[in-house]
Amino acid sequence: MNKVEEKLSHCFALVFPKMDPSQRAIATTENTSGWDSIAQVTLLTLIGEEFAIDIDFEEFEGATSFAALASRINQITSGAS
Question: 8, 43, 44, 63: most buried, per Cβ within 10 A?
C-alpha cells in the first residue's frame, strides 16, 4: 500500500469504523453498507483535511470506490488535473 492508499484507508476507517481493514481497498458505493451521500461528503471532507487539498465535490462526483478516490488524489497531489 502506498502513502496515498494508507492515508485514504485511515479516512475510510473513520467514516466506516465497522469495515474490516482488508475490505477497504475494494470498497465501492455498491458493496459498502452506509456509503450514502452523507458518508460521501464526510469522506471527502476528511480526505481534504488528511491530504491538505481543497476538495471540489463535483470533481469527485464519479469517485465511488476506494480505487477511484486514490487515483483522483494521486492526480491532484502530483499536480495533474
Answer: 8
Per domain, the residue ranges of the chain are 3-77
Q: Which CATH architecture has domain 3-77?
A: Orthogonal Bundle (1.10)
Distance CA 22, CA 59 (A): 27
Distance CA 37, CA 4 (A): 23
pLDDT tens across the length of the chain (81 residues): 899 999 999 999 999 999 999 999 999 999 999 999 999 999 999 999 999 999 988 989 899 999 999 999 999 998 765
